[in-house]
Specification:
The protein is an alpha/beta fold and about 425 residues long. The model has no long low-confidence stretch (mean pLDDT about 95). The protein folds into 2 domains: about 120 residues, Orthogonal Bundle (N-utilizing Substance Protein B Homolog, Chain A); about 250 residues, Vaccinia Virus protein VP39 (Rossmann fold, 3-Layer(aba) Sandwich), CATH 3.40.50.150. Helices cover about 40% and strands about 15% of the residues.
């Protein structure tokens, strides 16, 4: 018996109720789905029902503007943006138009969410839309604020970026041993875009894949794996991973031979990093501290700053990020302060990489332009996957529309500097 089920409730309704809670958290309270999901999904016992609830909410958020346009076209008077019936219809249409669920099942599990409410209206709007056999566009319509920012920043790329947001991303793995790339590609039936990387179709149960239990790899988007690669082999030298959790970059640095100190403000998130270290057999010292207050006892030969940011580059997997207004002034202040502090911790001859998973130039290109504390060390084409080239300044800039023919990648920025001797 599902713990979230109510008496005489149809199977499947608890998952839809959880999806409704997720949608409310994202749109009305501004919560990231990653934060809202654990309490919303906890009462649901079956893993596939939890996955379905999350998928429904994500697809409703991914296609929100287009689904709302269909709802508005089937009502005589516009429904308030925060009306419960609009939210339920968003979920119902996401199921029908994106997940391909049968209409009768969608109605049977959606209308109970409107107990005591306008069920007839919801049923009528859903029927009117689905009977017209409408289809969503090839690319989701971006929220107005996002479209305005990105047209100003990436005028020639907005169409490709939006098109790449139409589907959740494939599953990317980073291998502990890059020399075993061909072997793991054959074992898992994946493709590789560069040594140490493997791409599989989405929707696979990660824990059941070969190599998971023995820690041969970890889940990490290809773009997210590039900043750590820019530091090269460690040869047992000291490295600092700032804002390290959940730990993908720490694992990369440790696998590359660095003696890693992994610092993060969240002790809870560091627990997950420790679990991944144990699973992979890699080693790193973990420190729970605020990077703006902590002071190291010695200098580092490499520092990686994966700075806190708006995370708009991850919209393929986190479509909720598009519906939050990023606090860019606050975030860019923190990023600049981290850069200035970290530069003082770098040993002569050492290398610093700054990265953000953001499509906002304020958090990437403009930070690099303003920072003058170290000597620029441009990124070379051979350090990046085929199809991705450094910018004229020698920086890394990716967006979801790049490498589209092989599944795309997240939006990331990275820049690299070195500290002179003497």
């Amino acid at each position: 018996m599902n713990r979230s089920a109510r008496p005489d409730e149809a199977p499947g309704v608890p998952a839809r109720r959880a999806a409704l809670r997720l949608l409310d958290a994202a749109l009305n309270r501004g919560e990231p789905l990653d934060q809202a999901a654990p309490p919303a999904l906890r009462p649901i016992e079956r893993a596939d029902d939890r996955a379905l609830a999350l998928a429904i909410a994500q697809e409703a958020l991914r296609w929100l503007a287009d689904i709302d346009a269909l709802i508005d076209g089937a009502t005589r008077q516009p429904l308030p943006s925060d009306a419960k019936v609009r939210s339920v219809l968003r979920l119902m249409l996401a199921q029908a138009l994106r997940l391909g669920l049968p209409g009768h099942a969608t109605v049977a599990t959606g209308l109970p969410l409107l107990a005591g409410g306008p069920r007839r209206l919801a049923h009528g709007v859903f029927s009117a839309v689905t009977k017209r056999a409408v289809q969503l566009p090839n690319a989701p319509t971006l929220p107005d604020a996002v479209a305005t920012r990105w047209r100003a920043a990436w005028s020639g790329r907005v169409g490709a970026i939006a098109a790449a947001l139409a589907e959740p991303p494939p599953l990317d793995l980073t291998l502990r041993d890059p020399a075993a790339t061909v072997e793991w590609a054959e074992r898992l039936g994946g493709t590789s875009l560069m040594a140490g990387h493997l791409r599989l179709p989405r929707g696979q149960a990660v824990e059941g894949l070969a190599g998971f239990a023995e820690g041969a790899w970890w889940v990490q988007d290809l773009a997210a794996s590039l900043p750590a690669r820019l530091l090269g082999p460690g040869e047992a030298r000291p490295a600092l991973d700032l804002c390290a959790a959940p730990g993908g970059k720490t694992l990369q640095l440790a696998a590359a031979g660095w003696r890693v100190t992994a610092l993060d403000k969240s002790a809870r998130r560091l627990e997950r990093l420790a679990q991944n270290l144990a699973r992979t057999g890699l080693e790193a010292e973990t420190v729970a501290a605020d990077a703006l207050q902590w002071e190291p006892g010695a200098a580092f030969d490499a520092i990686l700053i994966d700075a806190p940011c708006s995370a708009t580059g991850t919209a393929r997997r986190h479509p909720d990020v598009l519906h939050r207004t990023p606090a860019l002034e606050e975030l860019t202040g923190v990023q600049a302060a981290m850069l200035e502090r970290a530069a003082r911790w770098l040993a002569p001859g050492g290398t610093l990489v700054y990265a953000t998973c953001s499509l906002e130039p304020e958090e990437g290109e403009r930070q690099a332009q303003r920072f003058t504390g170290l000597e620029p060390r441009p990124i070379a084409p051979g350090e990046l996957p085929e199809g991705i080239a450094p910018t004229p300044e020698g920086w890394l800039r990716t967006d979801p529309g790049m490498c589209e023919s092989v599944g795309g990648l997240d939006g990331f920025f990275a820049a690299r500097w070195a500290k002179r001797y003497g």
